[in-house]
Design goal:
The chain is of the alpha/beta class and 352 residues long. The chain is built from ten helices and 17 strands. Strand 11, helix 6 and strand 12 form a beta-alpha-beta unit. Helix 1 crosses helix 4. The termini are far apart.
Length: 352
């Protein structure tokens, strides 16, 4: 965008959003402009999903490369044929079981859907978010809403309106402030265009949940380092990244914490300011080694997920040079957390 614009902020009750404010935001969407709004996962940066110029404004505001596609959000399952064609029965089965919710499905793109929402591919990524603000905005706008995370490209996703304004204030028209999001990481992306349902990005809906409906579902995550178009967002190796250099440790917990403490002490001796992202039970083992930020209890992966991006932003605000963290297992939300941590660290993984 050539010059800053005035970004209007509306504070809303997440459980009972003001219909007049929703109507004003919907007018902005229909006018081809940009509104950030909360979903259950993260804040999205919304535009009319059926307007190529509106979608282009998203790419410009986020400084997002054209090869990274954008998810279209709908308010009802019946809206799915507005975006997709040749929809398999399993898509409707999954939608009835898991929508509204943090599941995105990749399907064949309809003729009326602009190709810039899908990086020029013949696919489209669609989900129906939960949360009354998102549902009300989409329904009031009367069009599907294209909405990637409302942050500058490669930065940690926005989980509060303050995060949105930090990255995009002066670049977008409005923000609907509904408080902090409650999942905190993005949706699971499931590709249904091939013979086997395939998770391309783990997220808020778990593999087990999907396999109850589609038993043959597999996971195939990738670390993309080039500009090849992908049907799924969130495939770049550098994504969700803080300004500080980050390293992720994996292995037996006690050994990992010892290694993190040693590394933190060595980096501090070099004059670097070190931040550590850990579980509550880890803190006694690394206190005094740097700026410690507790994400949550080890047995509360939902809490850790909810706090992750805000913690990365907070450590950046505290001007740390390096962030050390660890994996949180390979079960349940641990899979999605590992995906986000590795991308935030740009692949810098230390196996102890």
């Amino acid at each position: 965008m050539d010059s800053p614009i005035k970004t209007r902020v509306w504070r809303l009750d997440a459980d009972a959003p003001d219909p007049d404010i929703i109507a004003q935001a919907a007018d902005i969407i229909r006018d081809g402009r940009l509104v950030a709004f909360p979903t259950e996962t993260v804040y999205g940066l919304g535009a009319n999903a059926l307007s190529a110029p509106a979608i282009e404004r998203i790419y410009a505001a986020k400084q997002r490369p054209a090869h990274d596609p954008i998810i279209a959000h709908i308010a009802a399952i019946d809206d799915l044929p507005r975006l997709a064609v040749d929809i398999p029965d399993i898509a409707f089965d999954l939608a009835r079981a898991l929508w509204p919710g943090a599941l995105t499905m990749i399907l064949k793109r309809g003729a009326d859907v602009p190709d810039n929402i899908a990086a020029g591919l013949d696919t489209v990524a669609v989900r129906m978010p939960s949360g009354k603000i998102a549902a009300a905005l989409i329904a009031s706008a009367g069009v599907p809403i294209a909405a990637p995370s409302a942050n500058t490209f490669t930065r940690p996703s926005a989980t509060t309106a303050a995060h949105v304004l930090h990255d995009l204030g002066g670049r977008i028209d409005a923000v609907l402030d509904g408080g902090a999001t409650h999942i905190g990481i993005e949706s699971t992306v499931l590709d249904l265009t091939g013979e086997t349902p395939t998770i391309l990005r783990p997220g808020g809906v778990l593999l087990d949940d999907i396999q109850r409906i589609a038993p043959t579902t597999i996971t195939r995550s990738r670390w993309q380092t080039d500009d090849t178009p992908s049907p799924s967002p969130g495939q770049m190796l550098k994504h969700y990244a803080p300004n500080a250099r980050m390293m992720v440790y994996r292995g037996e917990v006690a050994a990992v914490l010892d290694a993190m403490r040693r590394t933190a002490e060595e980096l501090s001796a070099e004059g670097l300011r070190v931040g550590l992202l850990v579980a509550a039970e880890d803190r006694p083992h690394i206190d005094g080694a740097g700026v410690v930020h507790v994400l949550g209890r080890r047995d509360d992966l939902a809490g850790i997920s909810r706090n992750l991006f805000a913690a990365l932003r907070q450590l950046d605000a505290q001007n740390v040079d390096v962030i050390l963290t660890r994996d949180f297992g390979a079960e349940g939300l641990g899979v999605a957390l590992w995906d986000r941590l590795v991308r935030a660290a740009e692949g810098r993984v230390v196996t102890v």
